[in-house]
Amino acid sequence: KGTLEGCSPFTGQVLNHGHTMFCLHIATVNRFPSVSKKMQESWASLQEGVKGSTDLEEELTRIDQDTSLKERAVNYVWGAASQIQGELVTKAHQRISASYNIPGTMKPQDVTTAVEWLIKTGVFLDGDLDIKTRTYDKQQPFHHPIIKDLIVNQWYSSKGEGAKYVSIFKEMPNCLLALVATVLFSFCFFF
């Protein structure tokens, strides 16, 4: 995992801009980037992050000429993928029982049965979902409140990219929905 430890503040600024651009890439273009494209996608994010700033572009050129520093930069930017995925998993874990109205008093076997139903039917993202009665609204795919909750908490907080880069998030990117759906689907297997 890449860190900013030992980097100059100016180099750190370049890396942070690249990290932010890679976060945007993950949320809007490719939610699970292939490790085979680590160098290419991380470096492209660094280039995008410094675009328009001559000083930062020059610093990125300097980084490119230092093999060790370039590797650290790529690793730091690449860490955005696991960071976003980890943050979403943590937020989903904190909200899943309440969002799906799973009472703490529910018997373990009943929870297992309910989760199996969610997986089998694939309705864990549908609106008006009621686990107890096994009902949902087929006319409301991707309308479960937890989707909005996770998106708002991840991308629209005071530091969120959705609030800073409104034009990119103006139309809800399919990639963003797919990322949230994947996290929620994985919880069905670990609940």
Task: State the gist of this model.
With 191 residues, the chain is mainly alpha-helical.
How would you sum up this structure, described in words?
- With 191 residues, this protein is mostly helical.
- The protein has one domain.
- The chain contains nine helices and two strands.
- The chain has helices spanning 9-28, 38-50, 54-65, 67-99, 108-121, 145-155, 161-164, 166-169, 174-190, and strands spanning 127-130, 135-137.
- A two-stranded antiparallel sheet has the order 1-2.
- A hairpin with a 4-residue loop joins strand 1 (127-130) and strand 2 (135-137).
- Helix 4 packs antiparallel against helix 6.
- It is elongated.
- The model has no long low-confidence stretch (mean pLDDT 92).
Report the sheet with the most strands, covering strand number, pairing sense and barrel closure. 2 strands, antiparallel
Number of helices: 9
Radius of gyration: 20 Å
What string gives the helices and strands in order? HHHHHEEHHHH
Strand order of the largest sheet: 1-2
Oligomeric description of these chains: single chain
Strand content: under 5%
Structural class: mainly alpha
Give the uncertain stretches in residue-range form: none
Mean pLDDT: 92
The count of strands amounts to 2
Q: What spatial form do the alpha-carbon principal axes imply?
A: elongated
Range of helix content = 55-70%
Number of domains: 1
Distance between the termini: 28 Å
